[in-house]
Amino acid sequence: MIQRYTGLGFRYAALWWGIALLMASCQQTTHSHKEGSAYIAEDSRGLTITLSQPAKRVVVLFEPMVDELYMLQAGASIVGIPEQVYQNESSYQFLSKLDKRIARKEIATPTYGGRANNVESIVGLRPDLAIVYEQDKETIVQLEELNIPVYAVSSKNKERIYKELRGVATLVDKEERAEELISYVDEELIKMERPVDSVRKKVYYAWSKGRILSTSGKGSLMDLSIEAAGATNACTLEMEAPNIGAESLYSWNPDIIVLWNSKLADVYTLKELAALPAVKNKEVYVLTPTFNFDPHTLKFMLFAKQLRHWCYPEESVELLETQIQEAMDKLYYSAKEEA
Predict the structure, then answer these.
(1) Which residue among 48, 89, 104, 242 is the one 20 to 30 A from 214 at the CA level?
(2) pLDDT of 151 above 60
(3) Up-side HSE of residue 177: CA atoms within 13 Å toward CB?
C-alpha cells in the first residue's frame, strides 16, 4: 500500500507516529511513499530514489515500463524510449493509438541501433528520471554520476512487477492508479483459480524466433503465467532459460505447447518432435498479438487468461476475445486522453 506521510502539528504527534510505526512493522511494505513534499521509492537494487517533485521528463530504457507508464496514465511524461518500441510491430500498433508522438515516431530513442544506450543523447533530453533495466549497470552508473535519478527495474516476478509499478507510480504521482490496476489484476487472477484437487494440464513454453528447444523453467515469468492459468510448467528445471534436447520434451510430455513470436511451422516441421503427443494432437498455439500478453507487465494476467482457455476450453472463443478486450480497456482506459 502506498503510504502518505504529512507533518503532524497536533498534541499527540509522537503517540500517533509510534502507532503508525508499529502497524507498519506488521505489514508488508512496498518502500514507496510520498513524505511531505518528497516522492520516495525503492528500486530493484534496494536503493531509495527521492524526488522533490513528480517526474515530468522520463526516459524509459526498459520496454515493458513504457507500456506500464501508459497504464498509469503517465505517458505524457515520457521523453525517451527504446527503439524497440518502434521496431516491435505489435507494440507500435497499439501504443501509436494512445500517443500521437509514437504514431509519428517523435519520441526520442537514445540508443545505438536499438541496443546500447547513448548516454549523451539521454542527457540531452534533460530527464528528471530514468527507468533502466537493473542489469544495464554501465548505463546506471554513468547516469547517476551525472546526477540523473535512476529507478532500476527487473520485472523478475509478480511481487517485483507490483512493487516496481508502485514505485514508478509514486515518482510520477500516480499512486492511486497503480492501486486500481493491481486490485483489478488480483481480482482477475482469483477468478481463474481452479480447485486444488483438479487435474492440471502441463504446458511447454517455447522461446521466440523459432527457438523451440529453449524454454522457461520454474520460477520464471512464464511459469508465473502458467501457474496463474491453473496449469503446470512442463519444464521441471529451476532455471530461467534452459536449452534442452528433444528427449527432455518427450520425457515431460506436455499437453500443449505455447509459442511466443514464432510460427506453428517452427514446431510442425521439426522431425524430432513429430511423434510428440502434443504435436500429433495439434495442441500447439501461438500467443498473438504479443503486446497483449507481455508477462513482464501486469498483462501476465492476460497471458494466463488466454492459456487457461487453451488448457480448459470451458467458454467460447468469442467470449474470451470479449474478456481480453475488456481487460485491455481497463488497463489502458483514458490513457489516450492523458498522453
Answers:
(1) 89
(2) yes
(3) 23
Grid coordinates representing 231 are: 496449469
Residue 288's pLDDT is 95
First-last CA distance in the chain: 26
252 assigned to some structural domain: yes
Task: Look up the CATH number of the domain holding residue 169.
Answer: 3.40.50.1980
Residues 6+ apart with CB under 8 A from 305: 188, 192, 229, 320, 323, 324, 327
Residues 305, 292 contacting (CB under 8 angstroms): no
User: Looking at residues 121-137, what average pLDDT do you find?
Assistant: 97
Opening angle at CA 29, ends 23 and 34, nearest 5 = 95
Total tally of structural domains belonging to the chain: 2
- Under the banding of pLDDT at 50, 70 and 90, the label for residue 192 is very high
pLDDT of residue 28: 39
Q: Do the bridges between strand 32-35 and strand 38-42 make them parallel or antiparallel, or are there none, so unpaired?
A: antiparallel
CB of 60 closer than 8 Å to CB of 51: no
* Whether 176 and 206 share a structural domain: no
Q: Quick one: pLDDT at residue 15?
A: 35
Distance, in Å, from the CA atom of 20 to the CA atom of 236, rounded to the nearest integer, reads 44
Over residues 76-92, the pLDDT tens digits come to 999 999 999 999 999 99
* Under 8 Å between Cβ of 163 and 43: no
pLDDT at residue 6, rounded to an integer: 38
Residue 256 to residue 11: CA distance in whole angstroms:
65
What range does the domain containing 33 cover?
A: 3-189+334-338
